[in-house]
């Protein structure tokens, strides 16, 4: 009988991302033991009951010294502290990866806190989130056919990157690589901005005196556009602050686009509206069919 690819994996943050990583590797028969750490005893206990964890960790030093992989799947603002806690205790063969939606800040936190262990950290972003969070949201097939972006450091050995790539591929993911800067620029446009806009629309309606009446008439278009406003406020606060510069550029560009629409309406320019809508429809239809 073949040995699993990974003997022991330690996960910090056993919610949707961390929990699904464990369940996917278990389903693939790729891991022997999974140990979890987190801020909430209730979440950790739930994760153990759901079969995400074999054990709840109580000693970081003991658990990370002989782990094959440590996955940090907490909100990005908590990662610096975790890197600091694990750095003195990481085994020489232990690789660290993360599930953060921003990469520049996570890489900076790793550089500031991992010291000589920095080459053992291979940053990653699984693009498979959902509006639900917590251990109960974890799914064994969450990463099937989804993209995971690695943003390797110059300090990473090729075999270390390959090993983390293999772990995500065993979860069913399609793995690609970008630099941290490329990653943050791309995701400011296609992920972080849409979340910001979705939260903003719902917040705008929430402040109005007739919000109940408005929401009672909202249908599928509103539901589709605002689905992601049900995402974790803490997580998205951290993402927006972490990718602030790139996100502000995108927000400025979007504000300019809104102004073009405003001008078209103000000047009764139906042709301009149709031109904008037609191009948008064409690009969206082609993207959906890919």
Overview of this protein structure:
With 290 residues, the chain is an alpha/beta fold. It folds into two domains: 6-178, 3-Layer(aba) Sandwich (Rossmann fold), CATH 3.40.50.720; 183-288, 6-phosphogluconate dehydrogenase C-terminal like domain (6-phosphogluconate dehydrogenase C-terminal fold, Orthogonal Bundle), CATH 1.10.3660. It is 52% helix and 13% strand. The chain contains twelve helices and nine strands. The protein has helices at residues 16-27, 41-49, 60-64, 79-86, 104-113, 158-170, 180-206, 211-217, 220-226, 233-242, 244-266, 270-288; strands spanning 6-12, 31-37, 55-56, 69-72, 95-98, 121-122, 124-127, 147-150, 174-177. A six-stranded parallel beta sheet has the order 3-2-1-4-5-6. Strands 7-8-9 form a three-stranded mixed beta sheet, covered by helices on one side. Helix 4 (79-86) packs parallel to helix 5 (104-113). The radius of gyration is 21 Å and the shape is elongated.
CATH class of the largest domain: Alpha Beta
Which range best describes the helical content: under 10%, 10-25%, 25-40%, 40-55%, 55-70% or over 70%?
Answer: 40-55%
- Our Rg estimate from Cα atoms comes to 21 Å
What is the straight-line distance between the termini? 39 Å
Task: Determine the CATH superfamily of the largest domain.
Answer: NAD(P)-binding Rossmann-like Domain
* Helix/strand class: alpha/beta
Report the count of strand segments: 9
Spatial strand order of the main sheet: 3-2-1-4-5-6
Largest sheet: 6 strands, parallel
Summed up, the domain count is: 2
CATH architecture of the largest domain: 3-Layer(aba) Sandwich
Mean pLDDT: 95
Q: Would you list the SSEs in sequence order as H and E?
A: EHEHEHEHEHEEEHEHHHHHH
> What overall geometry do the principal axes of the alpha carbons give?
elongated
Q: Return the CATH topology of the largest domain.
A: Rossmann fold
Tally of DSSP helical segments: 12
Given as residue ranges, the uncertain stretches (5+ residues, pLDDT < 50) are none
Sheet-strand content, in percent, reads 5-15%
């Amino acid at each position: 009988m073949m040995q699993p690819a990974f003997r022991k994996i330690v996960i910090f943050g056993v919610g949707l991302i961390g929990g699904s990583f464990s369940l996917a590797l278990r389903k693939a028969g790729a891991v022997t033991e999974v140990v979890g750490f987190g801020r909430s005893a209730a979440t950790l206990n739930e994760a153990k009951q759901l079969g995400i964890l074999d054990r709840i960790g109580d000693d970081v030093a003991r658990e990370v010294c002989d782990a094959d992989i440590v996955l940090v799947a907490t909100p990005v603002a908590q990662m610096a502290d975790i890197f600091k806690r694990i750095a003195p205790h990481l085994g020489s063969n232990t690789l660290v990866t993360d599930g953060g939606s921003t990469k520049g800040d996570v890489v900076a936190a790793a550089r500031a806190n991992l010291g000589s262990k920095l080459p053992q950290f291979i940053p990653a972003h699984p693009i498979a989130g959902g509006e639900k969070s917590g251990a109960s949201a974890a799914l064994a097939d969450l990463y099937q056919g989804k993209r995971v972006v690695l943003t390797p450091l110059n300090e990473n050995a090729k075999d270390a990157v390959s090993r983390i790539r293999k772990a995500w591929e065993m979860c069913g993911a399609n793995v690609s690589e970008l630099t941290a800067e490329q990653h943050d620029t791309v995701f400011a446009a296609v992920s972080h901005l849409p979340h910001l806009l979705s939260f903003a629309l719902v917040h705008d309606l929430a402040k109005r005196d007739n919000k109940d009446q408005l929401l009672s008439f909202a249908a599928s278009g509103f539901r589709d556009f605002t689905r992601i406003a049900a995402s974790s406020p803490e997580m998205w606060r951290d993402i927006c602050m972490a990718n602030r510069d790139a996100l502000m550029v995108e927000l400025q560009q979007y504000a300019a686009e809104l102004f073009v629409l405003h001008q078209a309406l103000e000047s009764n320019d139906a042709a301009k509206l149709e031109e904008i809508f037609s191009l948008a429809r064409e690009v969206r239809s082609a993207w959906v069919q890919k």
